[in-house]
Amino acid sequence: MNLLTVHDLSKTFTIHAIGRAVPAFTNVSFQLRPGELLVARGQNGVGKSSLLRCLYRTYLPSAGHAIYRSAHGEVDLARAAEVDIALLRKTEIGYVSQFLRPRPRVSAIELVMEPLLAAGADSGEARARAGDWLGRLGLKESIWPAYPSTFSGGEQQKINLARALIAPRRLLLLDEPNAALDPVARAALRERLAALKAEGVAMIGVFHHIEDVHDLVDNEVVLNAVG
Amino acid sequence: MTLEPRTFDPPRLSDGRPLLTARELRKTYGRVTAVEGVSLEVYPGETLGIVGESGSGKSTVLRLLNLEEPADAGDYRLDLAAYAGENLLGLDRYRRRELRVSQIGIVYQQPHMGLRMGASSGGNVAERLIMAGERRFASLRAAARDSLAASEFPLDRLDDPPRVLSGGMQQRVQLAKAIAMRPALLLLDEPTTGLDVSVQALVLDTLLRLRRERRIATIVVSHDLGVIRTLADRVMVMRGGHVVEHGLADQVLDDPQHPYTQQLVHAKL
Hints:
The complex is a heterodimer.
Chain A: E1 4-15, E2 20-32, E3 37-41, H1 48-56, E4 63-70, E5 73-76, H2 82-91, E6 93-96, H3 108-118, H4 123-136, H5 153-165, E7 171-175, H6 183-198, E8 202-206, E9 219-222
Parallel strand pairs in A: 3-8, 3-9, 6-7, 7-8
Antiparallel strand pairs in A: 1-2, 1-4, 4-5
Helix pairs in contact in A: 3-4, 3-5
Chain B: E1 20-29, E2 32-42, E3 47-51, H1 58-65, E4 73-78, H2 93-103, E5 104-107, H3 111-114, H4 121-131, H5 137-150, H6 167-179, E6 185-189, H7 197-214, E7 217-221, H8 225-231, E8 234-239, E9 242-248, H9 249-254, H10 259-266
């Protein structure tokens, strides 16, 4: 049974100021089952990240369908109500980007705890699990209580990964999750992705270091330049 | 150029009902149409952002929803047992006041609009409770302290009047007053505009924590897209009294559809 069936999904950006339509990708189709990892491939600028963002609805798809079988019923991610997308983001679909948005006065460990607190976990349990994640990704315990705005790119990305992967999800969208990581963190991430896959989590990814996850990949979708 | 906002499927997964439903709100001042055909919903625990430049009608929408001014037309409902099936725009003066005191909290950009600047901060918050009928001194003081603490106001300054407080502290007193009755709806009108950036961040952080802990349906009006990105789940873009675009906050800010929204988003430094 497919978790996600994408049919002829397309995205074109209309930029009114210059009166132009800029295509990102056209007519992408694929299917994804629970526990599968699908990789989006293609040269820089062919719309791999845009595809992930369209599925998360940060970008609005221009045409096509993305039928997602949620725990509460079936919806088309391309045209589902905003409240339904908001609910899925809180409970079923996660997006792992390369960039952390630190907030003043929120510590590294608190940022990682937030998705668990939002899901109703108590603060002691959330803190323990957040610490476990940060430890495994190799972030020094001495900086967990510090504010990440001054951290290095690699450290920020570890926090971002922990934050994105800590709450249970049925579908994960991975946008270059290992781009800026050191070898220890890359190995830890690989191990986590393998465990999530074994638990039945479906994933769609764009990878900078595809060799890290090579043997986890079930399928690929190749995007070609358009326009 | 007019573009109809894109329509989506009706909700299929979310079984909750919106706390707030407003349809076709209209408000004119003489010959000037401030708000026309504005419809919106807000769900419990959700934050809706309203953006637009000065004169777009965004603050007028907030005043209509706060029942501060009469609307010329429209339908406005809150999903509360005591007001079931009623268009709130038609409430008499007595019930309007009762609804505003018990179920709607508001924070204004200008503290003097929401506070008595010479009365003590604790007294400003207690006043809200007294209006709702609380008379026992001990309960009043405890409830006011509780509400000020939730707004992260330093309790050793309880007796200071807002006049002598910093802008950030004044906003915390307004917030404490707004949430003192545990309202179903919280309205924020440019709550951090005019504050230093570092103070603004602290106030935003308090608002995020309150939202998580109390699940109040919130509407925040701001011209600051950073504030909207931080607080809002969904965004409505207004221009000339009309809604030109609405959507998930990240979608409206990262993939704006309407020419005006594109201009607004790209004008940001």
